[in-house]
Design brief:
Layout lengths: L1 H12 L2 H18 L3 E2 L8 E2 L2 H12 L1 H16 L7 H23 L3 H34 L4 H9 L8 H36 L5
Antiparallel strand pairs: 1-2
Helix pairs in contact: 2-3, 2-4, 3-4, 3-5, 3-8, 4-5, 5-6, 6-8
């Protein structure tokens, strides 16, 4: 009996109700992306938005897989209106999935306030590391292929903000990493109290 229950449990995850929640949250996160805005202390191509707040809450309430799926839906919808040939959407997907996936994974194993906070802090670290790696090895080179932006052009945008930026490595170190740290910190601070209010709707199936 226990073996049968173990085999059936994963199948129950992807119910219609579950997938409807994923779709709704993903679409809502995409809508929030419309309200992105630049910050004067970072290069103009780094824009702040709060869409990952929805993704993070979904990961806390429904688990890491749900968080990654919500991020995927958000980025898939965003792809149709992308002005970067999908390069920005790819980077957003990888970085957001790292944040939500690690947060949801840890909280799933430690279901308490401390677990939520620790999970979000670990998620922030994962987001910073993933953001540094994906932008250094994937996004910046792809911008050159898809958009015709040379690495020098992108570095130049950063050097206008701070003279500490003079090559691709320092661009990652002094622009992308601090940006993701600040973004993660803001979203984490907002997510914890908001999650308490929203999670019952997701867990009881009142959405979808």
């Amino acid at each position: 009996m226990n073996e049968n229950q173990t085999q059936v449990q994963p199948r129950k995850r992807f119910t219609t109700n579950y997938m409807v929640k994923i779709a709704i949250l993903g679409a809502l996160a995409r809508i929030i992306m419309f309200f992105e805005f630049p910050l004067p202390i970072f290069p103009a191509f780094l824009k702040m938005d709060f869409s990952d707040l929805i993704v993070l809450i979904g990961a806390l309430a429904m688990g890491p897989v749900a968080g990654i799926l919500i991020e995927f839906v958000k980025c898939f919808i965003h792809l149709f209106g992308s002005t970067t040939g999908g390069v920005g959407s790819l980077a957003t997907l990888i970085v957001g999935s790292a944040y939500a996936g690690v947060t949801g994974w840890y909280y799933q194993k430690h279901k308490n306030k401390k677990g939520a906070i620790t999970g979000m802090l670990l998620g922030m670290v994962a987001m910073i590391v993933a953001g540094a790696a994906v932008n250094y090895w994937i996004t910046i080179p792809l911008y050159g292929l898809v958009m015709g932006w040379s690495t020098e052009m992108i570095v130049g945008m950063g050097s206008k903000i701070t003279p500490l930026i003079h090559d691709k490595f320092t661009l990652i170190l002094f622009a992308f990493c601090p940006f993701n740290l600040m973004k993660g910190a803001v979203i984490t601070i907002i997510a914890l109290p908001l999650y308490k209010k929203v999670s019952p709707l997701l867990k009881k199936g009142l959405l979808g």
